[in-house]
Amino acid sequence: MRAVDLIQKKRDGKRLTKEEINWLISAYAAGTVPDYQMSAFAMAVYFRGMTMQETRDLTFAMVETGEHVDLSAIAGIKTDKHSTGGVGDKVTLILAPLVASFGVPVAKMSGRGLGHTGGTLDKLESVKGYRVELSQNEFIKQVQDIGLAVIGQSDKLVKADKMLYALRDVTATVDTIPLIASSVMSKKIAAGADSILLDVTVGEGAFMKTVAEAEKLAETMVELGEEVGRKTVAVITDMSQPLGQAVGNRLEVLEALQIMQGQGREDISRFICSLAQIMLSLAGVEKPLAAILQHLTDGSALKKFEEMVAAQGGNLEDLYRPSSARVVTEVFASESGYISDLPALDFALFAMKLGAGRAVKTDRLDYETGLVFDKKVGDAVQKGERLARIYSQEKLGENQLTEFKKNVKIMRVQRIPKEIIKIIS
Ligand code: URA
């Protein structure tokens, strides 16, 4: 076979066979199909799409480009969770220990920030000493010992996704359903958990901009998971504004700690408890929301989180240290009303310019910088009240402040945001 013929076939809107997809993906992972041909292929998929059968073949071909994790040595039903990406998305930091606090083992591999979206690994690495790289044996042993581990995806898992994602990130081919579904599900299948909760984000700060697109992505991924015998549920969640209050690595860890100390905003605490309820149910544990909220706020989740940080070499004193950003700029409301919009993408790009995110893969992060919102969409605000704090290393210019303020929209009418929009199983 020749890559050029397969690119042409997809470019012309034809269906690829399983053999053709297997050949292309294994040749790419082996290095015999170069990046420039794979980029052209990704763009052809972006414009022409794939059938469900092609997406299925692509996913399973990708799984075969790496090792499969065997979690059978861990007793119980193992659960995993994956978000399709967001702004201020610190859910894993809280949800994983919360679920583990009920005795359900969580063996989770997470990623770094991609494009404008943040990554759990980067947030955890803002804690001095935290090791994201564990061997498979260490990973399994830690879950056996304390019921929880959050580590980086091993290089040996789904090699094709590692290569293809980096390429998609720089060729404007991330936001297409067959490529997202195969990327997410190949990793989840290879990572070995018995059940999977998929958080499919929608809105300005997500890759899916409409609920209809998000539903299609969710349905595709649920079908792929079920096909290989993994119980899979997807929730469609709002990412039109940043999630919670903080955007930025250390700031998000601090917000996660606050939530696990019972001092978080009620909306995000309730949202995470709803996700935990689904994840627990996937593992056969039915709990009322009140019991889950109790574990979130009475220190049970926090204790698990601290155990995990300590087990992975993180320094517990450093965990609680405030951000060491040199400048904190407060932003105040210039009128009264209700917050009607906090466009997630604009704030993600703003935080990225402060060093909280990477514009290109090789950028070094500044863990300390970012944003903290005192007010979220739907909140009432009085003229002169503080809306947000901006953590930076340099004093902000007038233009930067004006840009930030312009994005905080205040109206006379109250808009109530939705968190979980729909559940697909
Ligand atoms: N997250 C992933 O893991 N892959 C994608 O393609 C998009 C979001």
TrEMBL record:
Pfam family, one: PYNP_C
Cofactor field: K(+)
Reactions listed under catalytic activity: 2'-deoxyuridine + phosphate = 2-deoxy-alpha-D-ribose 1-phosphate + uracil; uridine + phosphate = alpha-D-ribose 1-phosphate + uracil; thymidine + phosphate = 2-deoxy-alpha-D-ribose 1-phosphate + thymine
Gene Ontology molecular function: 1,4-alpha-oligoglucan phosphorylase activity; metal ion binding; thymidine phosphorylase activity
GO biological process, one term: pyrimidine nucleobase metabolic process
Domain of life, per lineage: Bacteria
UniProtKB keywords: Glycosyltransferase, Membrane, Metal-binding, Transferase, Transmembrane, Transmembrane helix
EC number, UniProt record: 2.4.2.2
Transmembrane parts of this sequence: 21-47
Domain Pyrimidine nucleoside phosphorylase C-terminal stretches: 338-411
Matches recorded under Gene3D superfamilies: Nucleoside phosphorylase/phosphoribosyltransferase catalytic domain, Pyrimidine nucleoside phosphorylase-like, C-terminal domain, Transferase, Pyrimidine Nucleoside Phosphorylase, Chain C
GO cellular component labels: cytosol
Quaternary context: Homodimer.
NCBIfam families: PRK05820.1, PRK06078.1, Y_phosphoryl
General function of this protein: Catalyzes phosphorolysis of the pyrimidine nucleosides uridine, thymidine and 2'-deoxyuridine with the formation of the corresponding pyrimidine base and ribose-1-phosphate.
Similarity comment text for this entry: Belongs to the thymidine/pyrimidine-nucleoside phosphorylase family.
Protein name from the UniProt record: Pyrimidine-nucleoside phosphorylase
Organism of origin: Streptococcus pantholopis
